[in-house]
Amino acid sequence: MKLLFVFFASVLFSVPALQQEDNQVVFDKTVHDFGDFRIDDGPKSHTFIMTNNGNKPVVIQTVISSCGCTVPEWTKEPILPGQKGSVTVTFSNDQGPYPFDKMLSVYVTGSSKPYVLRVRGVVHRKKFTLEDTHPVVMGPVRLRKKDLEMGQIRQGTVKTDSAEIINTGKYPVFLEFSCSHPNLTVTAKPSRLNSGEKGVLIYAIDSGKREEWGNVLYTAHLIINDKQDPMHVLTVKGSIKLDTSGMSRAEKAKAPVPQANQSAFEFKDTKTGSQIVASFQLSNKGKTPLVIYKTDTSHPGIQVKMAREIAPGAEVPVQITIPASETKSPGEVIYTVSLTTNAPSRPTVNLLVYGNLNP
Questions:
Q1: Is residue 11 included in any domain, yes or no?
Q2: How far apart are CA 124 and CA 120, in angstroms?
Q3: CA pair distance 210, 263, nearest whole angstrom
Q4: Are residues 229 and 134 in the same domain?
Q5: 77 in a domain, yes or no?
């Protein structure tokens, strides 16, 4: 089924890279947004500044780009403790009009994993207005979007991203945010924007402040000049998964291994407004207990009945019930259940229920 193929493709190819999070070296920023520009504006370049916070010299061994359209150059000499180096990336801007988000993997001596830098922007064939590029209006300021996606976040770590904000009003504005959850912080840099000035919203999810698992959605209210409008709200979404970076080979060898008897359940053609029940079996092929930290569903009414801990070698039933309230729209449908686990090999187990609803 076409819908099923699209879902699997999104699962396989949408997992973002995870940023190295030690303190040996620190970059002034890990994401640079070139904003909106035309294809005839020519190449765009940005320099990331790196500081060596360690107690011995480091060397940038190599920088690998995710695309041939982004060419990196970097400091080749050893960078002494307390000194700075740089990585300069040039986007060729010869690929046609399209939005882009390119990654650079920076390999530094003494770090087992690369540091991940990103450059992004939107290339247009012709000049666009602010109304086109920044359609979200919150009082005198404009943004590209108000729903911000963070992708996967390792449990206990911090993930940060940014979004552009523009003051289109006649007077300066002072910006601050009130966040709904202690794991979320949002700040504006600079916090004061003059008329016509661009700034950046820095938003971060710190999953170490309060333990949460699976899909999370936090909100932040924008406060302009000490006034809060209930309509000026940003949402920040992420998916918190098991952090396996510090696990030894021995720990991984003893870890639980989830295995479902099937990944997808196809129901026969069903009349809209009917309840659907799907059954799976989930077993633990590992050597330690399998724990289900969180169950997320694609539709709020879906009910999942199963054990939350599975002993080594054991198998448990998983019953998924799609209530009549979620089967009202005719056509081809997919319902998903995502299990967030303590298994390093499969921190997420996706179970699908799909089929056709007839009016």
A1: no
A2: 13
A3: 31
A4: yes
A5: yes
Q: How far is CA 165 from the centre of its chain?
A: 20
pLDDT one-digit tens code per residue, 37-64: 888 889 999 999 999 998 899 999 999 9
Residue ranges making up the domain that contains 304 = 252-358
Return the number of other C-beta atoms located less than 10 Å from residue 186's C-beta: 22
Q: What single string gives the DSSP state of each residue in 233-253?
A: EEEEEEEEE---TT--HHHHH
Q: How many CA atoms lie less than 13 Å away from 131 in the CB half-sphere?
A: 0
- Looking at the structure, tell me whether residues 315 and 268 fall in a common domain: yes
129 pLDDT tier (thresholds 50, 70, 90)? confident
Q: The whole model's pTM is what?
A: 0.76
Contact 142, 130 (CB under 8 A): yes
Which of 210, 241, 272 is where one domain is finished? 241
326: three-class secondary structure by DSSP? helix
Read off the pLDDT band of 125 (50, 70, 90): confident
What long-range pairs does 100-104 form, CB within 8 A, spacing at least 24? 100/69, 102/65, 102/66, 102/67, 102/69, 102/70, 103/17, 103/65, 103/66, 104/63, 104/64, 104/65, 104/66, 104/70, 104/72
**CA–CA dist 199, 149 (Å, integer):** 19
**Surface-to-core class of residue 76, CB atoms within 10 Å of its CB (0-12 exposed, 13-18 middle, 19+ buried):** exposed
163 & 225 share domain: yes
**Phi, psi dihedrals of residue 325, rounded to the nearest 5°:** -65, -20
